[in-house]
Amino acid sequence: MISSDVIRGHLDSIILRLIYEKDRYGYEISKEISLRTNNQFQIKEASLYAVFQRLEKKGIIESYFGDISYGGKRRYYKITTLGKAYFKEKIAEWEETKKIINIFMEGLE
Amino acid sequence: MKKLDVYVDELFKNIPQSQQKENIIKDIKQNLGEKVLDLMEQGKSEEDAINKAIVEFGDIEDIRVELESNQLEKRKHARIQLSFSICGSILILALFIFTNFYYTPQIIWFVYPTFAVLWWPLIMLYRWFSLR
Asked: Domain A5-105 is of which CATH architecture?
């Protein structure tokens, strides 16, 4: 299981991508991350909720209560218009970063 | 499941009270509860599932930083409100005192509105203290 600092720096983007696709609740997000990465990366609940706090404060995501499940109502997260623009920005930034790092990571025998 | 709730409460014990903290604790308990049920459906015993959820929970340091920065902003806001209320009430009282002594120096009445106006900075002072 990979849990490097590199991924930690991109948790916002990982979570935003999942919420971008559709509104989701906390456990659904952590499960989806493990599923898509074949369990190579698992997000810790503590990190997940720190990201929710941060993004909600910046107005990038919003939350609302949905259906009832174990022990209460699920809180769903929804990306805002600002969030969509922010995420597009992040994708462009990642493309640039990838290019720069690849200059140094590739081509060595 | 009770063990899980106790664990979460214990984790957040040292973080100052706030509405946000209450909400986050509720959400996390709900989330972990679902995780445990899910793990049990996959064939784990309740005890194993709860332990797995606890082990995988991680470090709450990041959440603490987020919650405390909220708190800090509120405190700053309260301080600005307090200083504003003090300046405001000094101005209003100065007007009362001036009017009193200039137009009706024989009757001292400015004390009455003073008591009323003082409620303003007092409330702001209380708010500021309660956030410390």
From this structure: Orthogonal Bundle (1.10)
